[in-house]
Amino acid sequence: MQRRAIEVSGVVQGVGFRPFVFALASQMKLNGFVQNRSGAVWIEIEGDESGLNCFTDCLRRQPPPLARIDNLSWNPIPLRDEDQFRILTSESGARAPVFVSPDLAICDECRSDLLDPEDRRYRYPFVNCTQCGPRLTITLRAPYDRGQTTMDPFVMCDQCQAEYKDPNDRRFHAQAITCPKCGPKLSLLDQEGSVVESSDPISDFAVAIGQGRIGAMKGIGGFHLVCDAANDVAVEMLRCRKHRDEKPFAVMMGDVNSVKRSCIVNRAERDLLESTPCPIVLLRKRVDGNAIPLSLAIAPNNAYIGVMLPYTPLHVLLFDVSGHQPLVMTSGNRSDEPIAFEDRDAIARLAGIADIFLVHDREIRVRCDDSLTRVIGGCEAPIRRSRGYAPMPLRLPCPSPKPMLAVGGQLKNVFALASGANAFLSHHIGDLESLQAVEAFRTDVQLYEQLFEITPAVVVHDLHPDYQSTSYAQARANRESIPALGVQHHHAHMASCMAEHQIDGDVIGVIFDGSGYGADGSIWGGEILVGGYESFVRAAHMRPVRLPGGDKATKEPWRVALSYLADAGCDVEEWLARADGGKPGAVEFAIVLQMLERGFNSPWTTSVGRLFDAVAAVASVRMRVSFEGQAAMQLESLGHDVHAAETYPYEVDANVKPGLPIQLDTRMLIRAVYDDHRDGVGAETIGRRFHNTLSSIIVDACCEIAGARGLDRVVLSGGVFLNALLSTQAANALAEKGLQVFQHRVVPPGDGGLCLGQLAIASRRLQ
Ligand code: ZN
Ligand code: ZN
Ligand code: FE
After folding, report:
1. Which of 74, 276, 588, 623 is the most exposed place for a label (fewest CB within 10 A)?
2. Which residues contact 680 (CB under 8 A, 6 or more apart)?
3. Residue 616, SS3 per DSSP
């Protein structure tokens, strides 16, 4: 007989780890105990050697599905001759990294309890167990125990208590355990926030939605705005009340079969739809005659639509009573504001939008938007990593010597805390463009520091002086007398992809995005960097053009088109005469031409995001956009549908000046697009040829650089690589040249992934 002390660290709390250990030990007739010790799980167990080996092996090889074991170590300790296996209450005070589990979609077993008339939780919208339910969003403090969650005020009834204590029950130690007798309750409110009498709030809410009204519904991480996805009037009304021009709404559908009636779904997409995080998955709309149509106002002029499945018991019941009609389910906010998650605030902010509110009395502690993802080349490419993923820690390639905060960028902000090898990336905070968004950023940074018990000794930020996140970082560093470390935007993109794949040494980083502050103060966005975490050099970049009107040009691609056309020596008057799709008036046109000539308010940029805009405008696909990336998305879906192998001419000019970066010259490309449009070539073909060309430019430049510098690894990062057509083409073509290609699979290639790169670079620099 022997006794072992086993310590397991990683994601081991709030994922049913202790009950799992208990069941395993009982099954193998081993005695001892298991205990949570702030971040790690501590097991003491005794039995004969082979039994103990088998137990340790099982733990290592088949942990519970939601757990992630980073480290498992054991030591022999003296026997105690115990006669049973016990679960001890959590010990606090021990210093180990703290983990908080992401929120988990309802599991199959809870779903059947929910729909089983014999079950005592039949139709109870807050059913959950050790394998499902809210986690991050209800956690007040770590470690995860009922008393440290917003479930604390609900005192367990005898039956729940008994299940909670029964090691053979599925809800053994389920911290959010609850039932109709002892748990949260739903209520229905009107626009003023007064209670509407209702014996069945879900059905009454469903009836209102069915009548074409707009509802607001309290979910896991905040409020959703809900309406009938097939009702044009309702969707248009929501769009108008929300002040959201053309940005797509997400749709929730009852199950995969109903998704298939409106969208094309492949195996990988289906798996993602049904995965535990239950994200919104970007899918192609079906356009055949048998497709069940949804309102065109959901994603206007867009071949894609974001779809998710019900992930809370409340959603399941709503679909059950409403006959499985697809529902628009979009974040409860006015455009550009953070998602509302507190009852009073939600009612105040959403009163002008929603006609009716379905709320409950379980408090949301941490706001958390839905995650958004897509499949590229059979693999997941995250667009927004939030609910269901955050705050699952990622591993840094080299451990951070000090606790750090990386504040991310300005748009699609996500921040991250580092402690040792762990990077805790926040949920999606959003664009730091409104006062409320900046306030949410500050509040949530504070919340995470408290939750993870991390006090930053270093703050890491972008080099852009006007980013709200940069100002915050610098002010904080001043106030607390700690160092602030600036990291170049595209270097951070490159490092985030490297960190995700745990690669080290020098690589080639193809970083294409909308904009980022360059090392020379100009706007970068079409960069090929060479380097590693420590440092980088700019090996190549797109030919710079002027951005007439600065930020205004981001909303009005025709301005960028004009700049590119003029640069390429095309006849801009002739182009304007034949262009359509919201082209500018003569006066506006003349003003912009003058701005270009004088260089007034027209910063230089190498942005590939803007190049997409320019090509879309030259080909009359789109002259104005209502959100960034809209024109690119349209070009991608146009190009997706045709098979054109041609590429436009371009120049990879390695001999600009010795020692200077290679210039990727787009003038011939623009002239060819201009000619194609004049000759009546369809936008699909132009779109396809443009993608072929960009991919070809990437390959030529990378081969040139790889040869000159003896490198063979290429990372693709930056928001442009959310483009499936370009990503797939470029990755395949690079691989054909014998280069090793790395793409984002865990964090977004866009600015939502910056904070991981910032941490990876800073932790290396501090060593
Ligand atoms: Zn469950
Ligand atoms: Zn109960
Ligand atoms: Fe960026």
Report:
1. 588
2. none
3. helix
* C-alpha to C-alpha distance for 690 and 632, rounded to whole angstroms: 11
In sequence order, the 6+-apart residues with CB closer than 8 A to the CB of 389 are 102, 277, 279, 371, 382
- Nearest ligand for residue 462 CA: 3
Q: How far apart are CA 689 and CA 221, in angstroms?
A: 42
Tokens standing for 298?
């959901």
Please tell me the distance from the alpha carbon of residue 696 to that of residue 265, in angstroms, as a whole number: 29
| Ligand 1 centre distance from Cα of residue 175 (Å) | 12
Instruction: Please write the tens of the pLDDT for every residue from 409-435.
Output: 999 999 999 998 889 999 999 999 999
Return the ligand number nearest the Cα of 514.
3
**How far is ligand 2, taken at its centre, from the CA of residue 164, in Å?**
10
Check if the beta carbon of residue 613 is closer than 8 Å to that of residue 557: yes
Pull the structure tokens for residue 505.
Answer: 């040494």
Around ion ligand 3, which residues have CB less than 5 A away? Answer: 513, 516, 751
Nearest ligand, CA of residue 489? 3
Quick: pLDDT tens for 238-271.
999 998 778 999 999 999 999 999 999 999 999 9
Distance CA 306, CA 693 (A): 29
- Round to whole Å and give the CA distance between 129 and 107: 8
**pLDDT of res. 86:** 92
In angstroms, what is the span from residue 660 Cα to ligand 3's centroid?
23
8 A C-beta contact, residue 479 and residue 498: no
The pLDDT tens digits of the residues spanning 151-208 come to 999 999 999 999 999 878 889 889 999 999 999 999 999 998 999 999 999 999 999 9
Is residue 348 a contact partner of residue 333, using CB atoms and an 8 Å limit? Answer: no
- Residue 224 pLDDT exceeds 80: yes
User: In this structure, are strands 250-252 and 195-196 parallel, antiparallel, or unpaired?
Assistant: unpaired
Which residue is listed with tokens 């409320």?
A: 436
Question: Distance from the CA of 238 to the center of ligand 1, in angstroms?
Answer: 33
